[in-house]
Amino acid sequence: MKNSPSEQMVRDWAAVVAQYAPSTRARVRALAQQHQHALASRFYDSLLSDAAASQLVSHEQVQVRLHASMMRWITDVFADPEDIAPQALVERQIRIGEVHARIDVPVHLVLRGARSLKQGFYALLGAEDESRNDGAAVQLVTQTIDLAMEIMSQTYAHSHERSARADEAYRLLSMVQNASMERERQRAALLDWESAVMYEIAVGEAARLPRMAASEFGLWFRHKGVHAFQGTSEAEAILAAIAHVDEVVQPALEAAQDVEERQRQARELRDHARRMALDLDTLFQKANELEGGRDVLTSLLNRKFLPVVLSKEVAYARERNSQFAVIAIDIDHFKQVNDVHGHEAGDMVLQQFAALLSDSVRGGDYLFRLGGEEFLMLSVDVDEARAVAAAERLRARIAAEVFRLPRDRTMTLTISIGLAMHDGHPDYQRALRRADVALYAAKQRGRNCLVVADQVADKVTAG
Ligand SMILES: Nc1nc2c(ncn2[C@@H]2O[C@H](COP(=O)(O)OP(=O)(O)OP(=O)(O)O)[C@@H](O)[C@H]2O)c(=O)[nH]1
User: Would you list the domain boundaries of the chain?
Assistant: First the structure.
């Protein structure tokens, strides 16, 4: 999800511009243009002096691009509103903040770079003809750079918060990933507790019955389940039922004087346990599908986890000096499947296709359904030759497969593939874009083929 500029930000930017005479702005702009190279180097050097940041910017592409884009930034932020509108400049700061969040550049380092830039400007202004030093130019520089930093930091914070939420959701997804096993375990635990209570009642030891909250199921649900299924009505119902059983039903059972009353309370307890088991089933089903982040039709990961998984893999690759491949896969002419055989047939094909994909990857790889008939495979710990061979095998396997359709009909399919190796660049968007461009090239080349994005030239070559 993108951040968009608030009206306040655009108003603030326009106000800073309006506050200064055209001559002051022209003076700062001229200075920025004249010294943009030295100023960009200044910013860059201050980043490199930090060990963590120098690791992030060690990538050659980053060095080349960072310096070039810093030079552009230094002149553009002082542009006349007729040349670059405040709205566009605010949008630019937002994009920069988003990149910082994606590659995880700490805010303090960006602020340090900004401080060193301002010092550079002050020194240049001070060195100019003294009669011109009325302070306005210094203020313009300070206000502009500070405002840009404010917008970047705000975006950074929003993006970070969002990615932290996705991260948390992913953690929970992993926790209940083997949902069917966990469900069985918890259903059995619930049943164990119920049997233990019934046994105590049957043998006439109902003075102090085992409380559900302290049972294996109760503990699991209150500590983990409730987080995994946060905000659902079923989770609320189970929590309320645990409290009701422990605080109302069981004390009533313990206090029951006659058999009839005891049977009535025991029946109520059993009804509660049954309803809980049903709610639990519903919750696990949801966890497996929508709320767990899996695509309902294919059970593959949905795109909301793409940033989480890619950031993790980028960090992993950096730490271990390993590589991974981003493989964009698109079914060819899928529209025709729906048009000729109907939507239900299209769904069936997508499910069989996803099953084939799952069967073609290794345990550590990831599979996403990005939407419609677009899929993405993240092949971890591979070099280009192996990734290309695996993708090519997949292409051939799909082309050879006979897909089942309703009413005993069948059909065959082909796919186009765009493959990009992660080239060490800290921003995962780059590998995604390169894979996408390669996929587009594969479609252009006539489909049913694989195109590999060229690592060095950042352009696409036939694979
Ligand atoms: N049955 C079914 N169809 C879907 C689903 N999601 C998207 N589609 C269809 O997928 C089709 C995608 O068509 P296009 O994007 O035009 O691409 P294409 O026909 O595959 O052609 P190329 O990609 O250019 O080879 C559309 O007709 C969508 O309606 C789904 O969940 N189920």
Answer: 7-168, 179-288, 301-462
| Cβ–ligand 1 contact at 335 (below 6 Å) | yes
Instruction: Please enumerate in sequence order all residues whose Cβ is within 8 A of that of 13, keeping only pairs 6 or more positions apart, or say none.
Output: 86, 89, 90, 147
Domains 7-168 and 301-462 share a fold: no
Vertex 103 angle, CA 97 and 104, to 5°: 80
Q: Whose CA is nearest to atom 5 of ligand 1?
A: 372
108 lines ligand 1 (CB under 6 A): no
pTM over 0.80, yes/no: no
Residue among 290, 343, 373, 411 to mutate when testing ligand 1 (max atoms within 8 A of CB): 373
Which amino acid appears at position 137 of this protein? A
- Nearest C-alpha neighbor of 377 from the set 451, 300, 315, 267: 300
Residues 150-173: what's their mean pLDDT? 74
Average pLDDT over residues 97-111: 82
State the closest ligand 1 atom to the C-alpha of 338, by its place in the atom list counted from 1: 1
What is the distance in A from the centroid of ligand 1 to the CA of 370? 12
Tell me how far the alpha carbon of residue 175 lies from the centroid of ligand 1, in angstroms: 33
Per-residue pLDDT at 83: 94
- At the fourth CATH level, which superfamily is domain 301-462? Reverse transcriptase/Diguanylate cyclase domain (3.30.70.270)
ipTM score of complex? 0.92
Residue whose CA is closest, atom 29 of ligand 1? Answer: 335
What CATH superfamily is the domain 7-168?
A: Globins (1.10.490.10)
| E strand or H helix that includes residue 328 | strand 324-331
pLDDT-based confidence at residue 61 (cuts at 50, 70, 90) = low
